[in-house]
Model the fold of this input.
Amino acid sequence: MEKSAGISMVVKAFMLRIRALRVPVIITFVMAVFGVGQVRAELLVIDFEGLSAMTFFSGNPIPPDARLSDAFLLTHGVSFSSGSPYVAVVDLGIGHATSGTNGIGGSTPAGVLTYDRQFPIVVSFFDPSDTSTPAVTDFVSVRGDLLGSGLLVTLNAFDIAGHLIASFTTTDDGGETLSVSAPGIHSVQFLGTNDNAGVALDDLTFNHVTPAAGAANLLVNGDFSLGNTGFTSDYVFTSDTQPEGTYCVDTNPHNCHPGGASYV
Done:
């Protein structure tokens, strides 16, 4: 049993014999144990290896091939964003990254690599089988790169309504693990340091995602099939929209205004 950052990995192998084939099959189950009586299965890890990467020095424009946004959306249900709708994959090198050579940094709205907490790295979860449906998990962790700055870094967790539900702050002492645990985590936000003492992230780890309960009904009466309900407006509801500042809910525009198209 090997322990790291309060997490112990327990690997059990079971031998099954398929009678028809007479062939022994080894099935391995990996479970992470988080304290007494708290067990999480199906942990997924993204180490950012095998992706095109750029220099890790901040202030450089992020090349298109080093931009990471939805590459893991269909496989893991994960999307990445920062000041721009993507993060930067950076080549940290051995001894700088916590595993392999790659990590990720933030982006400014102008598409420049940054580690400033003004442009946090955001990881959001979606259903891999239907990427338009928000998903949730109950555990997320990331690791800071091995070159510590001594400054504080924070990982925040939010539900699908954008409410803060968990937060973890620690010192960037090199290779630190930041983790949050709570039911219904839809996104996490990493607040780093600054460009002079930047912290790149590596080894994003999270429990298997599931579709968020009620995610399909986040917009009440979105197709107006319930009539004039489930929304508010500064306009006045009426059956005749010829006067300005009025609106109508009907299956046929012509019923609301004589100039409207008729679908009868």
